[in-house]
Design goal:
The protein is of the alpha/beta class. The protein has two domains: 223 residues, P-loop containing nucleotide triphosphate hydrolases (Rossmann fold, 3-Layer(aba) Sandwich), CATH 3.40.50; 117 residues, Helicase, Ruva Protein, domain 3 (Orthogonal Bundle), CATH 1.10.8.80. It has 15 helices and eleven strands. The strands form four sheets. It has a five-stranded parallel sheet. Strands 3-4 form a two-stranded antiparallel ribbon. Strands 6-7 form a two-stranded antiparallel ribbon. Helix 10 packs across helix 12, helix 12 crosses helix 13 and helix 13 packs antiparallel against helix 15. The N and C termini lie far apart (65 Å).
């Protein structure tokens, strides 16, 4: 076989040299399509038309409630918003503020605006657990005697536990089962609480003599802890003007009486459907882990995404439990809906971090001596965690 080219005609370029024999070509590698991992969320999912209508309905209902509360409550917009976020997330709220700033009024007005049943318990040192959950009573009818359970004030939709730190720990713990499991057990019988069940407890930071600090186990049951500040000068003027006139402002019920409870549960179920990407779950877990001092014998093992903070190591004895992470994500889901989205972002988590975590940090004596506020510690962690934002 002649491998040479035929002679070229005059004036033409010489032919290129023959290519040396080479190995047979390799088969082309199959082309792979890069697919994102199967997750529960994407960065900016576009909601379906039906989902968009649900999101808009949630936002409209939330705004309507705020407007109605604003007719009676002067100022305190951030506090009201955080209370509503916790309620729609399915949690309970602890409110701390000085007397006369409207803690009881906020809770009572919320129950009236939602058309839900409302009960108030004034906690005192002589209050007994049966005064909250109920007791068995001996009734006689037609010559027959029987023990009948008389339900206590905990059987309601919205419960105000006023000045909860004035009752003994035994009485305070009577709320634990109701808050955690929405049920009450008396004399061996379990009674379910009708949903929704929402507890708002108030703390009085002054006159601490004769009070009992809430145990950490009960503090952990509250999704948020919010602080009710003094009103501003303009708000103070509006308060004394509107409450001393001939006409006292009132709210109009937003929800129909027979459908109010089911409507609230429907909105709470919608919150659960908001999407959270795995890297945002990782971010929330990193924030919770960062509240735990590395020197604690209960400190988690493994690397941490957020570097240990010196003030956490110095002033915190125990950090947040996993319930803090649950509060972060549930609160962030409500924030996402209020922003018109069906997915959570870093900003949503950061916005609920302080009310969700501040009451879960157990400070040591050095922190009390130096007047360290746990909200400041959480803000430091948020500043350090910004580098994790993508």
């Amino acid at each position: 076989m002649n491998d040479s080219f035929p002679p070229s005609p005059p004036g033409s370029d010489p032919p290129p040299p023959a290519a040396p024999p080479s190995a047979p070509p390799r088969p082309a590698a199959p082309r792979t399509v890069s697919r994102p991992p199967a997750t529960r969320a994407v960065e900016s999912p576009q909601p379906e038309p039906g989902a968009r209508a649900q999101v808009d309905d949630f936002r409209d209902t939330f705004a309507h409630i705020r407007r109605e509360l604003g007719k009676v409550i002067v100022g305190q917009g951030d506090v009201i918003e955080e209370i509503l976020v916790a309620m729609f997330a399915g949690g309970h709220v602890l409110i701390e503020g000085v007397p006369g700033t409207g803690k009881t009024l906020i809770v009572r007005t919320l129950g009236r605006a939602l058309n839900l049943s409302f009960n108030r318990i004034q906690f005192t040192i002589d209050l007994m657990p049966a005064d909250i959950t109920g007791t068995r009573m001996l009734l006689e009818q037609d010559g027959q005697r029987e023990l009948v359970f008389s339900r206590g004030p905990v059987f309601t939709h919205v419960l105000l536990a006023d000045e909860i730190n004035r009752a003994t720990p035994k009485t305070q713990s009577a709320l634990l089962e109701a808050m955690a499991e929405s049920q009450v057990t008396a004399a061996g019988t379990t009674y379910k609480l009708a949903p929704p069940f929402f507890v708002l407890a108030t703390l009085n930071p002054i006159e601490m003599e004769g009070t009992y600090p809430l145990p950490e186990a009960q503090l952990d049951r509250f999704m948020f802890k919010v602080f009710l500040p003094y009103p501003s000068a303009d708000e103070m003027q509006r308060i004394i003007g509107t409450t001393t006139g001939a006409e006292v402002p009132d709210v109009e019920p937003i929800l129909a009486p027979r459908k109010a409870a089911a409507r609230v549960e429907e909105l709470k179920a919608l919150v659960r459907e908001v999407l959270v990407a795995p890297h945002l779950e990782e971010y929330a877990a990193a924030l919770v882990r960062a509240t735990i001092p590395r020197g604690s014998r209960f400190a988690p093992s493994g690397p941490a995404l957020i570097a240990a903070d010196d003030m956490i190591q110095r002033y915190v004895s125990f950090g947040s439990s996993p319930r803090g992470g649950q509060a972060l994500l549930l609160g962030a889901k409500v924030r996402a809906l209020l922003a018109g989205r069906v997915n959570v972002t870093y900003a949503d988590i950061d916005r609920v971090a302080v009310p969700a975590l501040n009451h879960r940090l157990v400070l040591n004596f050095a922190a009390r001596a130096d007047e360290i506020d746990p909200r400041m510690l959480i803000q430091r962690l948020l500043d350090a965690a910004k580098r994790l934002h993508r």
